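Risk register update: the risk that structure generation would not scale has been downgraded. Supporting records follow, first protein first.
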Amino acid sequence: VQLVESGGGLVQPGGSLQLSCAASGFTVSNYVVRWFRQAPGKERELVDAITRDDGRSYSADSVKGRFTVSRDNARNILYLQMNNLLPEDTAVYYCHVLVNGYNYWGQGTQVTVSS
């Protein structure tokens, strides 16, 4: 199982970014895949998740209405579309999956929201 995030960068407040998580070794549509983030000095927190089967998503209150998770089943990629970004969204963003009782994490991608 491997997860590789990309798409992070520096963006001004109010801007948008789309993060990608390329998955291998498992099929994203068969598992709950989650996006977490960790800001400096803070614990890692769950941001968004997409369920298997029906693809419904869960969003943390702090990002509800601004972030949207989706997936491309054909390409086995998970996306996190982030709109109206705020300075407090600055963090390293990780995708995560639990497969056969093991937690798998990507290497993370840095998102910095600053003017």
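Supporting record for the second protein:
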Amino acid sequence: VQLVESGGGLVQAGGSLRLSCSASGFTFSSYTMRWFRQAPGKEREFVAAISSLGSLVNYTDSVKGRFTISRDNAKNTVYLQMNSLKPEDTAIYYCYNQPYDTWGQGTQVTVSS
């Protein structure tokens, strides 16, 4: 089981980024997928989740209306579209599969003010 994130980078406040998480080694379309993030000196926190077929999503309050989670089961990939980025969104972003308790290596997002 493997998860590989990509798409992070440095962006100015108000900008956008789209993160991708490519999955392999399990039946991707059968499982809810989640994004988490960890800012320097802070605990890892939940960001967003999407059900196996994409019909249900939920977000932490701080990103509602700015971030959108989606998935393409044909490509075994989950996405996180991040708009109106703020400096407090700076963190390493991870995707996660709970049944297999598997994390990706993370992708750094840095938002400058």
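The mean pLDDT is 97. On this basis the risk owner (M.S.) recommends closing the item.
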